[in-house]
Amino acid sequence: MRLSFFVFALLVSIFLIASADAELYKQFEDIKFVEVIRVDGYPSDSILANITVKDPDSILLVGYDPMTYNSLNKTFNYTLTAGKVQKTGTYSKCITASSAGLNQTSCFDFEVTPSGAEQNSILENPFPIFFIGIGLILLIFGIYKGNPWMGFISSVIFIMGGIYTFIYGLNNEQTLYTQSISIVVLGIGLVFMFLSAYEFLAEE
């Protein structure tokens, strides 16, 4: 049996080719795996594929579930529902391909981030910088011109920045720390909003 498996592994090699964005996904969204499984260099309609998925804490999410075969595209598909994509970090998926009574398993890692994008530096995600920068510019301009409407607009931008940071975090990190920062930014925006409204009413 071991010899036959060795021959199968050599002559009937199985390669899993993921789609271009298959290694990076967004938190709280369905993940659609589309895999091309080749036997001896060619897709085969006789292959059966099953998938196993574990989360970053090695908790089993999918236990050897069958994948759906698309005979038109020669691909094997499986959807990991959003309810199972609750954590950020490195997940693992193992796909077992069966043919002629023999099996071979290949395992791969994939990343889940709050934004669905890889960020190694805060400069790679300009939105928090944009919200805070534009908000400060408008606030300073409003104070300089004595225009409460500028202050009100800046407060809205601060609030948008706080909401964005609360949802997506910073540098793919969504922790109590990043949520605390977002709450502070939200608070600043709300303070500026009430002050702008007070100034506007006082002028009236």
Class of the largest domain in CATH?
Answer: Mainly Beta
The named CATH superfamily of the largest domain: Immunoglobulins
Instruction: Give the class from helix and strand content and strand pairing.
Output: alpha+beta
Distance between the termini: 89 Å
Overall 3D shape? rod-shaped
CATH topology of the largest domain: Immunoglobulin-like
- Give the beta-strand count: 10
Rg calculated over all Cα atoms: 25 Å
Average per-residue pLDDT, rounded, comes to 77
Which stretches are low in confidence, meaning pLDDT under 50 for 5 or more residues running? 1-22
Q: What oligomeric state best describes the polypeptide chains here?
A: single chain
Task: Encode the helix/strand succession as letters.
Answer: HEEEEEEEEEEHHH
Work out the strand percent.
Answer: 25-35%
Biggest sheet, open or closed, and with what strands and sense?
A: 5 strands, antiparallel
CATH architecture of the largest domain: Sandwich
Query: In DSSP terms, counting alpha (H) and pi (I) runs of 4 or more, how many helices?
Result: 4
What is the number of domains? 2
Helical amount:
25-40%
Plain-language structure description:
With 204 residues, this protein is α+β, with helices and mostly antiparallel strands. The protein folds into two domains: 2-113, Immunoglobulins (Immunoglobulin-like, Sandwich), CATH 2.60.40.10; 122-203. The protein is 39% helix and 32% strand. The chain has four helices and ten strands. The strands form two sheets. Strands 1, 3, 4, 7 and 8 form a five-stranded antiparallel sheet that branches. Strands 2-10-9-5-6 form a five-stranded mixed sheet, with helices on one face. A hairpin with a 5-residue loop joins strand 5 and strand 6 (60-66). The relative contact order is 0.13. Residues 1-22 have low confidence and may be disordered.
